Amino acid sequence: MRVVVQRVSQAQVSVESKIVSSIGKGYLLLIGMTHEDDIDTAKQMARKIANLRVFSDLEGKMNLSLSQVGGEILSISQFTLYGDTNNSNRPSFTKAMNYKEADKLYLDFNEILRKEYGINVKAGVFGEHMEVSLVNDGPVTIIIEK
User: Fold this and answer.
1) Mean pLDDT of all residues in the chain?
2) Which of the chain's termini has less CB crowding within 10 Å, N or C?
3) Active site (annotated) includes residue 68
4) pLDDT score for 9
5) Contact 70, 25 (CB under 8 A)
6) The pLDDT of residue 77
């Protein structure tokens, strides 16, 4: 599982020019899954993201977690995170998890963040062409991989 975490002051996702989800302060997550990923991987990644400390404390140091600042998550599935260009200029996506399994694991991952960590998680539309807009705060972008 590969997750790009972007600290944002706001973010939104649209499908067919209609906003389907938006957040204020928090994380925009771009989530890619590979064949080896399972529910245990999703739990480990959710724990890591929920406890990630990249928000500034009173001294200006990145020391606070999402829950400590009252932030929320906009979660976007993105199989292209497993695009492989080692042998070609056209990416191969054979390392990405198949559609049906990825959809279920993506939903499970979001639900773990909601239920186990009490985070308000909003989502894109799995498998749809999405337009994502964000204001990257910092900018702070972290890649987490399991």
Assistant:
1) 96
2) C
3) no
4) 98
5) yes
6) 96
> Catalytic pick from 68, 80, 93, 94?
80
Instruction: Provide the pLDDT for residue 34.
Output: 97
> Which of 6, 55, 78, 109 is flagged as catalytic?
78
Paired strand residues for 10:
135
Residue of 12, 55, 79, 109 with catalytic role: 79
Instruction: Look at the block and give the residue holding tokens 């972290």.
Output: 142
78 catalytically annotated = yes
For residue 42, what is the domain's CATH number?
3.50.80.10
pTM of the model: 0.95
Longest dimension (CA), the chain: 48
Phi, psi of 112 (to 5 degrees): -60, -45
Enter the tokens of residue 36: 């080896």
Strand 72-77 and strand 121-123: pairing? parallel
Q: Are 5 and 49 in contact (CB under 8 A)?
A: yes
The total of structural domains in the chain comes to 1
To the query of whether residue 41 is one of the catalytic residues in this protein, the response is no
Range of the domain at 92: 2-145
Residue 146 has pLDDT above 90, yes or no: no
Question: What average pLDDT score do residues 94-123 get?
Answer: 97
